[in-house]
Amino acid sequence: MKIKALALLAAMTATTAMAQTAPHERQARDIYEKVIAFRTAAGHGQMPKMTDYLVGVLKAGGVPQADIAILPLGETNAMVVRFPAAGKPSKKPILFSAHMDVVDARPEDWTRDPFRLIEENGYFFGRGTSDNKAGVTALVSTIVRLKAEGFKPKRDLVFAFIGDEETLMATTKLVAAHPWVKDAEFAINTDAGGGALDESGKPVIYLVQGAEKTYATFELTVPNPGGHSSRPRSDNAIYDLAAALARLQAYRFPVMANALTRDYLGAVGKSMPGEVGEGLRAFAANPQDQKASDYLATQPEFVGTTRTTCVATMLNAGHAENALPQKATATVNCRIFPDVKVADVQAELARVVANPAIQFKVLNDPQPSPVSEMRPDVMAAITRAIHVDYPGVPIVPYLESGGTDGKIYRIAGIPTFASSGLFTKTSDMFAHGLNERLAVPAFYKGLGHIYRVTKDLGGR
Ligand SMILES: [Zn+2]
């Protein structure tokens, strides 16, 4: 009995080990290790070195130099790789995208060296392990694997590697305008979309990003003549700003919904018990159900999918403890629903704070982007690919409250769907933060996902 159990265990271990050490998986792990080691945060000048390395891998894998384009921009660059159709293309190209840069990490703050791939306790640790060097690795690995198989795509496949997604997204704009890319029928972005595991590791839902909210930051300034603090006056920059912020706190932007957000909230609602599930299902059925939208407004996880949100994030006022303030400023960060204009949000904020003395300034360069209507062919390919490793898990589109450079493609007229293939537990999300990690099985399954989606869509 014991021997049999041991033999079974040995057989299982061997299967697991084999499953993770197929030749393409070993190569992908090696690529992952190499790209994590480049500190590709803005200002470190490492991007050309990383693309040199990737060009070497691609050429060794059978990609001719003529199908690789490097687009330099300042200290960084982007890379575009073409996998041409065999014969006359049946349709317009498909774009696949990942970004090579990372948010910087200070080695002294991390438990382990952030720029060394460390496999420990079932996780890969390192800056970029999840955001987005797993995606870079999956795209490079897929190209090399398809070349080795002699894959003959029916249309051009184009792979973009972006050099400044975390900062300016200027290389994404270069890529979107590149002759190989600009006529793409749609794009698959590896930098968002993904699956949720519950804390026991069971897959719950898989999300495909089809739209992003617009990120806009306003600075509200109350100017005042000021004066001596022994002689308070009826108007005061700090009190006036505080009153404005209290009005903003009490205000909610109107409820909004589209096909994508209703599908999303309805599908999540089905898998959630209690009041939250009930609220989600009621809202999906009827976004004008005020009880449901009022309830969801109290749920930080869902409020952003039901309306535009604006929230005060920073304050600055006064210049001396014994002087009346000459200025008070607040920073208000907004996540604006698709198809709502930034100027309209500013006008609404001005109306809400109800003080014409308050000056408004937009601090960033907001990039409103359209919703990408879900395509049945894309959803079907993603569903088939996900169900290989996670049978039966619901596949649902969603509106991103954060942001990626997918918006640049959408603005350029290329509908974009983000699907990383990566499943994570909420407790394992450390992108941009300390000790970023990705579960080892998630990495290998993510490779399989990108490979299957590329081959499926490229073969039609
Ligand atoms: Zn990212």
Automatic annotation (TrEMBL):
Pfam families: M20_dimer (PF07687), Peptidase_M20 (PF01546). Keywords: Hydrolase, Metal-binding, Protease, Signal, Zinc. It comes from the Bacteria. The keyword Hydrolase applies. Residues 211-357 form the Peptidase M20 dimerisation domain. InterPro entries: ArgE/DapE_CS, Bact_exopeptidase_dim_dom, Pept_M20A, Peptidase_M20, Peptidase_M20_dimer. Residues 1-19 form the signal peptide. Gene3D superfamilies: 1.10.150.900, 3.30.70.360, Zn peptidases. Coiled coil: none annotated. Belongs to the peptidase M20A family. PANTHER family: N-FATTY-ACYL-AMINO ACID SYNTHASE/HYDROLASE PM20D1 (PTHR45962), N-FATTY-ACYL-AMINO ACID SYNTHASE_HYDROLASE PM20D1 (PTHR45962:SF1). This is M20/M25/M40 family metallo-hydrolase. It comes from Sphingoaurantiacus capsulatus. The lineage of its organism: Bacteria, Pseudomonadati, Pseudomonadota, Alphaproteobacteria, Sphingomonadales.
